[in-house]
Amino acid sequence: MDRSRFHDMISVRQIMKSLRALIAQDMPAQERLDKIVEQVAQRLDVDVCSCYITRPGGILELCATYGLDKKAVHETFLRMGEGLVGEIALQRKPIAVADVWSHTSFVYKPETKEKPFKSLVGVPLIRANRVLGVLVIQTRAVQSFSSEMIELLETIGMVLAEMLAGQQFKKSESDTLLVGGRQKIEGTGLIDGFAVGQALVHKRMEQVAQVLAGDAQKETQKLIQALDRVEREVNKILATSHMSGDQSDIFETYLMFIKDKGWIAKMTKAIETGLTADAAVQKVGDEITERMELMTDPYIKERIHDFRDLVGRVRRHLGRSGVIRNRKIPRNTILVAKNLGPAELLDYDKNKIKGIVLEEGSQTMHMVIVARSLNIPLICGIKNVAQIISNGDSVAIDAASGTVYLNPSDETLDTLSARAQRQKKLRARYAQMKDLPAITSDGVSVSLNINAGLSNDLMVDDGALFDGIGLYRTELPFMLADDLPDVKTQTNIYRRALIQVQGKPVIFRALDIGSDKVLPYFQHQAEENPALGWRSIRMTLDRRALLRNQLRAFIRAAAGRDLYVMFPMIASVREFCEARKTLMMEVDREKRRGGTLPRMIRVGTMIEVPSLIFQLERLVREVDFISVGTNDLAQFLYACDRGNPMIWNRYDVLSPALLKALKYICDVCHQARIPCSVCGEMASRSLEAVTLVGLGFRSLSMTPSSLGAVKAAIRTMDQKHLAAYLEKQLVTTSGSLREKLKMYARDHGILI
Ligand code: PEP
Ligand code: MG
To answer: How far apart are CA 127 and CA 646, in angstroms?
Structure first.
C-alpha cells in the first residue's frame, strides 16, 4: 500500500475518534473488543483484524477476530514465542511479513481458517511494561506494509492496551467474557493461596428499626449497658484468641474507642434530642466515619474499618441478636465483604474461613495483618463484590494472581486444584531444603535474610532458615502504637527482636517515616511531593531528639550483643556522617551513664537515593555495610511513584538501567570489601533474586514467605554462567530482560 493511498484512505484522527467512541460506550467488554477489531479492519481496508490477549503462564488467547473463523475465538492459543503472534509478544516489537507462508516462524492454526491470508502485521499491546496481548491485521494479497501503517497500528495498539488494562474492563465484566463465558473477576491478591468454598456475604447491621424514643434516661442506660457488653466481649477476644502483640494492639485500640469520653458524650447528647440509643449510635458513628473519610492520612483511613466494626458491635448489643461470635457457617467459607474489621473477622470460626474477598483493602489494614497471621488467602480491590457475589455461590480464589472464580466450572476447579497441588509439592520441596545452605551449583554461597518489623514476621513459613534480619523496619511498631513510644518501650521492642532471632544479626533501620508511612500522633505538614519531601533521615536529623531516643534504645537493647544500625534515605555522605556522629554521641552517653554497651557496633546506610551512587567511592570509606533499597531506588531512578497503581509497575526492575546501577554498587563495594545486600522487594522474587546473585550480590533480605522459593532458585543456578550472560545482555539490550531471563532460567533448569 503506497503512502498517498494510505493517506487518502485513512484519517488517523478519524479512526482514533471512532475507537474512543467505542471505548466510551457502555457495553460488555467482549462486544466492545469485537467491534474494535471490526472497525480497525474496515477502516484500514484489510481482510482480517484479530486481538490476542495474554493469559497467565504467557499463553496468548485469540479473543476477538474480524475475518478469521469466529469459532476459533477463545479456542486458539499460542505460547510466548510460538508463531508470528508469539514472536511479536516475546520481542515486544511489531513484525510485518509480506508472505507468512514462507516465514520460518509462522504456525498455522487450522481452526482459524486463515489459509487465504498471505500478509500480516502485528503489534504488541504493552502497558506498564507488560505485554497484554497482540493486535494483528492480515490481507489476502501479498503486500508490504508502509512504516506509516505500522505506526498507525502501534498507536491503535496503545489505545487498546489502555482499554485492556483500564479499571472497568479489567475488574468485572471483561474477564468474564474473555474467557468464554466463565465467571472470572480480577482483583489484587494481598495474601497468597488458593481456596474453594461457599460464599458468605458479610452483613453489617441493617437500618435502624426505631428512630425516636420517649424515655431518654432508659435509652442512655441501654447504651451504657451495650458499651459494657462490647468491652467485655473485646476483652474476651483478647483473652481467648491467642493473638500476637500486633493483633492484640488492634483490640486495645477498640477498648480505647469504647472508653472515649467524647464519643460517649456525643451519643448521649443525641439520645437527649429524642433519638433511640440505636439511632444515636448510628448517627454519631456516621458523622465520625464521614469526618475520618475526609482525612488524607492513610493510617486514619484504615482505622475507619475498625471504628465501623465497633459501631456495628454496639448496635448488635442494643438489638436482640447480641453476641455473634462463632456463628454457624459452612465448613469452607469464602467471606465476601465491602470491608471488614479485624474483630468482625474473628467473630467467625477462623478454621472455617478459607478465603476472603473484599472491595476495599490494603496491605497495611489491620484486618489484613490478622488474616495474614491466620494464613487466609485474601483478594481485595473488586468493585461491588458484595453485590456481584451472593450467599451460597460457589467461589474459588487464586490469590497469587488476584483472581476470583464465581461458580467455577469443573475445568477451572481442576486447573486450580492442580496448581494448588503443584504449590504444595513446591512447598514440600522447599521444606526439604530448609536445612541446606543457599549455595549455587558452582559453589557460591549467598546469605539469606528476612525483612521484619512485626512480631509475626519472625514466624517463618515451614521453619525456613535465615541468616538474620537484613532489614528491621522500626517504623512498623511506631505505626501500630497509639503514641510516640518512649525509649523504654522501644528498647523492649528491639530487645524482643534480638532475643527472638537467637544471636543472628539484626539490622535495625532508623525511623523511616514520612511519605506514605504516617504516624497518627505525629504532626505531618502537607507537602506537594511527600516521597521527595521532609521524610526519613531528613526529618530525624531535624528532630534530633527523635533520632537520639531511638539510637539510645538500639544501644540499650543490644547491650552485650552486636548492634547493626542502618540509616534510610541518605542522599549525601555528609548526611550519613552526621547520622553516625549522633549514634556515637549516644554510645558515649551510655558509657558515661555506666550502661552495658553493645559488644560490637556496625553502622551502614541504605542506597535508595540515586545521588548516593555517584558518591559511592567516598561513601565506602565511611560505612561498615550497605543495603540497597530497590523499592525506593527504582522509584527515584525512573521518577515513578511506587504507590501509584497507574504506573507503579511501568518500569521493570529487570531492565539494564537499574541492573547496571546495582552492578556498579556491588562492584565498588566488593572492591572496597564492604558487605552489600539488597533488601527491596526485588530480593523476594525468585527471578530477580537469581539475577541479583548473577550481578554479584552475596546477601539478600526478603519477605519471610519468599525464603524457600529464593533458596530453591539459588541452589539451581550457576552464578558464573549467569554473570557472563548478564554481562553481555546489559550492553546489548535496552529493554526489560525479564522474558530473556525467564527463558534463560527455563533452559538452565533454574527453579523459578
Ligand atoms: C526500599 O526502599 O527498597 C526499602 C526496603 O525500604 P521501604 O520499602 O521500607 O521504603
Ligand atoms: Mg525505602
So the answer is: 10
The Cα 118–Cα 598 span in angstroms is 76
Q: Which of 45-54, 319-328, 381-390, 430-439 has the lowest mean pLDDT?
A: 319-328
Does 17 score more than 80 pLDDT?
no
Give the lowest-confidence range in 117-126, 507-516, 713-722: 507-516
Determine the pLDDT at residue 729: 94
Ion ligand 2 neighbours (CB, 5 A) are 608, 629, 632
User: How many CB atoms are located within 10 Å of the residue 499 CB?
Assistant: 11
Amino acid code (one letter) for 376: I
**Helix, strand, coil content of the chain in percent (nearest 5):** 50, 15, 35
Whether residue 437 contacts residue 445, with contact meaning beta carbons closer than 8 Å, is answered with yes
Enumerate the H helices of 57-208 as residue ranges: 83-91, 147-165, 167-171, 173-178
The span from the CA of 158 to the CA of 168, in Å, is 17
0.90 exceeded by pTM: no
Say how many CA atoms lie within 13 Å of 381 toward its Cβ. Answer: 18
C-alpha cell at 446: 549467598
Dig out the grid coordinates for 617 from the structure: 567511592
Ordered DSSP codes for 646-704: TTTTSS-TTSHHHHHHHHHHHHHHHHHT--EEE-SGGGGSHHHHHHHHHHT--EEEE-G
> H/E/C letters for each residue in 33-88?
HHHHHHHHHHHHCCCEEEEEEEECCCEEEEEEEECCCHHHCCCCEEECCCHHHHHH
pLDDT one-digit tens code per residue, 28-81? 778 889 999 999 999 899 999 999 988 766 678 899 999 999 999 988 888 888
Q: What is the pLDDT of residues 143-162, one digit of tens each?
A: 988 888 888 888 888 878 77
d(CA 164, CA 733): 27
What whole-number distance in Å separates Cα of residue 697 and Cα of residue 676? 7
Residues 6+ apart with CB under 8 A from 158: 126
Distance (angstroms) between ligand 2 centre and the Cα of 684 equals 15
Counting ligand 1 atoms within 8 A of each CB, the residue from 479, 676, 679, 699 with the most, and so the one to mutate, is 679
Cell 565511611 -> residue: 622
CA distance 212 to 196: 45
Nearest ligand 1 atom to alpha carbon 451:
5
For residues 410 and 397, give the distance between their C-alpha atoms in angstroms, rounded to a whole number: 14
What pLDDT is attached to residue 455?
Answer: 58
